[in-house]
C-alpha cells in the first residue's frame, strides 16, 4: 500500500484566505460572511476566502481579506504567482445567510445578501464562471474544501428564532 501524504488542515477565520495545493483541507464557518472557492481541476490548486463585507468605506494602503474586492485581488495575485490562469478555475459561492430571521429590519438587503451580490459581481467582472452556489437563507454553514479533488462538504444549521418584543414593550 503506497504511503499517502498527510493532509494539512487549515481553518479560516473571518477575513482569512488560503491558496495552495493538494493534500490540503480548508474549513470555515460562515454566517452572513461569504466564501468564494476557486479550484483548478487539472493542477489541483485551490483558493478560498472568508470575507465579511463587500468593500471598505475608504481606501487603504494594505489589502484586507475582510473585504470582498480586496481579498479577490489577493487570490488573483496568488493564482498568477502559481503560474496558472484565473480563467482555468472553477468558482463556487457559499454563505450570506440571514442570521436574525425573527427581526423584520433589513430583511431584503441584509449584509449577507450584500455579500452574495458582491461575490457574484466580482466573478462576473473577472469573467469566471460560477459552477455552483449555496447562498442566502437563514443560519450558518460549516464548509469543508478538499483542494486535492475540489470536493465541498457543507452543512447548514438553522438559527434559533429571535423575536422582536411587541411594540411599546421594548426594554428601557
UniProtKB/TrEMBL annotation:
Catalytic activity: L-glutaminyl-[protein] + H2O = L-glutamyl-[protein] + NH4(+)
UniProt name for this protein: Probable chemoreceptor glutamine deamidase CheD
Top-level taxonomic group: Bacteria
GO molecular function: protein-glutamine glutaminase activity
Function noted in UniProt: Probably deamidates glutamine residues to glutamate on methyl-accepting chemotaxis receptors (MCPs), playing an important role in chemotaxis.
GO BP terms in the entry: chemotaxis
Pfam families: CheD
InterPro entries xrefs: CheD-like_sf (IPR038592), Chemorcpt_Glu_NH3ase_CheD (IPR005659), Cytotoxic_necrot_fac-like_cat (IPR011324)
Family: Belongs to the CheD family.
Organism: Pseudomonas fulva (strain 12-X)
Record flagged with keyword Repeat: no
The EC number(s) this enzyme carries: 3.5.1.44
Top-rank EC class of the record's enzyme: hydrolase
Amino acid at each position: 500500500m503506497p504511503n499517502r501524504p498527510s493532509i494539512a488542515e487549515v481553518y479560516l477565520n473571518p477575513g482569512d484566505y488560503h491558496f495552495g495545493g493538494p493534500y490540503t483541507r480548508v474549513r470555515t464557518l460562515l454566517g452572513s460572511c461569504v466564501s468564494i472557492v476557486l479550484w483548478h481541476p487539472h493542477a489541483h490548486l485551490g483558493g478560498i476566502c472568508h470575507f465579511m463585507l463587500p468593500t471598505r468605506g475608504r481606501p487603504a494602503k494594505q489589502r484586507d481579506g475582510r473585504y470582498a474586492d480586496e481579498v479577490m485581488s489577493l487570490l488573483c495575485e496568488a493564482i498568477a504567482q502559481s503560474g496558472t490562469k484565473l480563467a482555468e478555475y472553477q468558482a463556487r459561492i457559499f454563505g450570506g445567510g440571514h442570521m436574525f430571521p425573527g427581526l423584520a429590519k433589513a430583511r431584503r438587503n441584509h449584509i449577507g445578501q450584500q455579500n452574495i451580490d458582491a461575490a457574484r459581481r466580482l466573478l462576473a467582472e473577472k469573467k469566471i464562471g460560477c459552477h455552483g452556489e449555496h447562498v442566502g437563507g437563514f443560519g450558518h454553514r460549516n464548509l469543508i474544501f478538499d483542494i486535492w479533488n475540489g470536493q465541498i462538504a457543507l452543512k447548514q444549521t438553522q438559527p434559533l428564532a429571535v423575536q422582536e418584543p411587541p411594540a411599546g414593550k421594548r426594554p428601557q
